[in-house]
Amino acid sequence: MSLEGEDAAAVRRTAVGDLRALAHPVRLRILSLLTGAELSAAEIARELEITHANASYHLRLLRDSGHIQPAGKEKVRGGVAQRYRYDVSKEFDPRGPGEPGEYPTSYGAQLMYAALAAELQRRGRAVVTGPASANLTTDAELWVDPDRWRALRDRVFEASRELHEAAQPPHTPGTVRVSATIALFRMEDR
To answer: What is a GO molecular function of this protein (predicted)?
Structure first.
């Protein structure tokens, strides 16, 4: 069911609802595209090589969950196309109440991490390698001081925000296509 206007604004966002809206590789790719540009369903469909109907379906889920906003309409061949945008500055600040990455259910977190893993595998097929590529990979399961953890997490959050602010429309001359997947979370000490 798609909500319109004031009804959409009244949707109560929850951590689990947010995860369900985001826990799909196509929706993660759409958010990436909409970070640097306002796009229509048709433009997203062309860029992601999916059907217009599929792009519209995923856009509707992201809009109804409050992750993207309408960004105006334009006339296209006798019709009207809705453009959307993703304003990362309006998203949940993970430094707010509670610890980032701690969700009300482990099932919700598992959905999100599974979607991130699938997207990372897809992106990995397009990795540029060699000395000029300046790639960075870190994978670790560590024990650190809680105060140091919070300080490091906050620095990574700020770098992530800066990267989103630097995003340009797809294929903008003078830009390079990059991938960033960051998942920092506290683990149970077993």
So the answer is: DNA binding
Q: Tell me which amino acid residue 45 is.
A: A
Does a structural domain hold residue 172? no
pLDDT in tens, 78-119: 889 999 998 876 654 544 444 444 444 565 667 777 778 888
Q: Which residues pair with 83 in a beta bridge?
A: 40
**119 inside domain:** yes
Q: For residue 7, how many other CB atoms are within 10 A of its CB?
A: 11
Q: Which residues of 47-82 are buried (b: 16+ CB within 10 A; e: fewer)?
A: bbebeeeebbbbbbbbbbbbbbeebeeeeeeeeeee
Burial of 98 (0-12, 13-18, 19+ CB in 10 A): exposed
User: How many structural domains is the chain composed of?
Assistant: 1
Beta bridge partners of 75: 80
pLDDT of residue 90: 61
